[in-house]
Amino acid sequence: MVLEQPGYDELIMYLTQNLALFEKPGQVEANAPSVMVLIEDVIAEQVMMLCQQHSELDTEQRGQIVREVDGIVYDLQEVLSRVLNQAVTREQRAFIDEFASLVKNLFDNAIAAAAR
């Protein structure tokens, strides 16, 4: 659906262009979750929103989305493996929120294209 599309390659390029956010210390908020916990929570939230907005998706399509999202999270784990257990900084939180929104946009566009 999206993993083999040019948009996903661009998303990964965007991640690599912003790796410096994860390489330098920043201001950690009180009770901040780890980078991994935040990634999982924010992406899961976006996937739930996607499925709610596209109620026409059948079980097979939803399963495909979940499998591809698992692949995206796996890619993030690979790239960010050294910082996954660190508390997230404000800058990292903002990036992860934006990244998750871009993931949702990729799926929104793929769903719209398939409906045409």
Helix content percent band? over 70%
* Tally of domains: 1
Quaternary form:
single chain
The total count of strands amounts to 0
Separation of the first and last Cα atoms: 15 Å
3D shape: elongated
**Over all CA atoms, what is the radius of gyration?**
15 Å
Main sheet makeup: none
Arithmetic mean of pLDDT: 94
Succession of helices and strands: HHHHH
What labels would you give this structure?
116 residues; DUF3802 family protein; mainly alpha
Describe the structure.
It is built from 5 helices and no strands. By secondary structure, the protein is mainly alpha-helical. It has one domain (6-115). The protein starts with 5 loop residues before the first helix and ends with a helix. 20% of the residues are buried. Pfam families: DUF3802. It comes from Pseudoalteromonas qingdaonensis. InterPro entries: Uncharacterised_A0KLC6 (IPR020979).
Q: In summary, what is this structure?
A:
With 116 residues, the protein is mainly alpha-helical. It is built from 5 helices and no strands. It starts with 5 loop residues before the first helix and ends with a helix.
Q: Secondary-structure blueprint of this entry?
A:
Blueprint: H1 6-17, H2 20-23, H3 35-53, H4 59-79, H5 90-115
Helix pairs in contact: 1-5, 3-4, 3-5
Organism: Pseudoalteromonas qingdaonensis
Protein name: DUF3802 family protein
Pfam families: DUF3802
